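Recall from the previous lesson that a structure prediction takes nothing but the amino acid sequence as input. Here we apply that procedure to CidA/LrgA family protein from Billgrantia pellis. The sequence below is the only information supplied.
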Amino acid sequence: MKLLRGFLWLLGFQLLGHAVVELLSLPISHAMAGLLLLLAWLLAKRRLNESVAMASQALIPLLAMLIMPGVVGVFFVIDEFAGHWTAIMVALGIGTFLSVLTTLWLMRRFMPREAVNADEQGRQP
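The prediction returns the following tokens.
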């Protein structure tokens, strides 16, 4: 039941994001607005809802499949990218670099100090 409740919370925030974007004519995707609203809600509560965490964990293995429709959709507008390959490659490179840096920062910030120290001791000869 917690899993279903978590999915309903996630779906509710996605629908709320859709409504906010449509009402305010914001230039962002509906799903991104929903995620930002979910983040604001979690920050305001200052704790993670257990049912949302359970639903999120269930979606992580499906992440590649959830991204696939957007990737496939690019093939329908491929002609529009004709003169912009350099900009696209630079944006992809910078985006990848920033996402790796962000992941590293988050891991260092939220991993327990004992695990970090043990990992560093394991690398020393």
